[in-house]
Amino acid sequence: MNGWHLLPAALLVLACSGRYGGAPGAGARITVRGSDTLVVLMQRWAEASTTSQPDVVVEVSGGGTGTGIAALMNGTTDLAMASRPIAREERARIEGSGAKLVEIPVALDAVAIYIHESNPLSALTLDALRGVFAGKIRRWSELGGADRPIVLYSRESSSGTYAFFKEHVLQKCDFAPEAQSLPGTAAVVQAVARDPAAIGYGGIARARGVKVLPLRLADGSVVAPDHEAATTGRYPLTRPLFVYLRAPANPEAEGFARFLVGPEAQALAEEAGFFAWRSPP
Fold first, then answer.
1. Which of 36, 84, 141, 204 is an S-S bond match for 112, by CB 3.0 to 4.6 Å?
2. Domain 110-232 has what CATH class?
C-alpha cells in the first residue's frame, strides 16, 4: 500500500524544514481536524501529549477526512487526520502554494463489516459484500439468512472510510440508492445495533454492540479483522491511518506529530482497538 514506508522520510522533512513562529510557549494551540475514525483516538493522544508539551493545547474535531484535508488546504488546521491517502489533486493544491506536504502513518486499521448480533450469518465473500452494497443482493435469504430485506448503512461521501470502501469493495461503482448515509462511524454502529436487518461498515475500533462479520477469501478460508490478519495484510480491508501537515510546520505541530509515532502514542492506539504502526517496545 502506497505510503506505508514513508515515516522516516516524513520526519526527515520536518527536521530539515524551516519553521515559522518561535519556540512553544504558554497558551500555544494547534488544531487537528478530519477523520471520524481517528477522532476519539486523537483526543486521547492530545491528552497524553501534555507530558511532552505541557504548554500546548491540542484542539481536535472530526467531520470526515475530506473536511480535514480541505481545512489543511485552506490553512484553517495545523494537522489533518485521514483514513485514506490524500488524492493527487489535493496534494497538488497544497504543494502549489509552495508548502511541502508531509504524510505520516500513525496507526493501522481494519475496516470491519457490522451486522446485528442476532444475525446468524458467519462470513461473506467480497463479491457478495459488493453485491449487497451495490443493491444487487437485496434480501438476507439470498445469503442463507432470514427472508427479510437488507438495510444498508453507509458513511457520507466526505468520509475517507466511504472512499476506501467504494474503492476496495465496490471497485469504484456506486452504492445502492437506498444505502443510508450517516455522519460518523458511531452513528453506523448505533443504527446496526438497533436493526436486526442491518449491515454497515467502519473501523474495527468502533465495533461495540454489533457482530463483526469475517470475510471468506478466494481459497475458502475465513479471516476476521484481528491483529494478526491486519498486521500481516491477510485481511483484505486493512488500511493505514494518516496525519498530514504542511512543512515548514510550526514547532507545536511538529512536536505533536513526532509524539504520534512514539511508543506512548502507539501503545494508546493498541489500547483503543487499532493496531500500532510501529509496535511499542
1. 204
2. alpha beta
Give pLDDT tens digits along the chain (281 positions): 333 334 444 554 454 433 323 344 456 899 999 999 999 999 999 999 998 889 999 999 999 999 999 999 999 999 999 999 999 999 999 999 889 999 999 999 999 999 999 999 999 999 999 999 999 999 999 999 999 999 999 999 999 999 999 999 999 999 999 999 999 999 999 999 999 999 999 999 999 999 999 999 999 999 999 999 999 999 999 999 999 999 988 899 999 999 999 999 999 999 999 999 864 44
7-108+240-276 and 110-232: identical CATH topology:
yes
Task: Return d(Cα 185, Cα 202) in angstroms, integer.
Answer: 6
Longest Cα–Cα distance of the chain, Å, equals 65
Cα-based distances in Å from 156 to 36, 181, 202, 213: 11, 5, 12, 22
Beta partners for 202?
A: 112
CA angle 209-214-215, nearest 5°? Answer: 145
| Nearest alpha carbon to residue 169 among 205, 115, 197, 128 | 128
- Residue tagged 494551540 (cell numbers): 29
Q: Where are the domains of the chain?
A: 7-108+240-276, 110-232
Kindly report the pTM of this predicted structure.
0.86
- Amino acid letter, residue 211: K
Cell numbers at 255, concatenated: 512536536
In 3D, which of 134, 168, 169 has the Cα closest to residue 150?
A: 134
Residues β-bridged to residue 105 = 242
Closest alpha carbon to 128 in 136, 118, 117: 136
| Residue written as grid cell 475465513 | 222
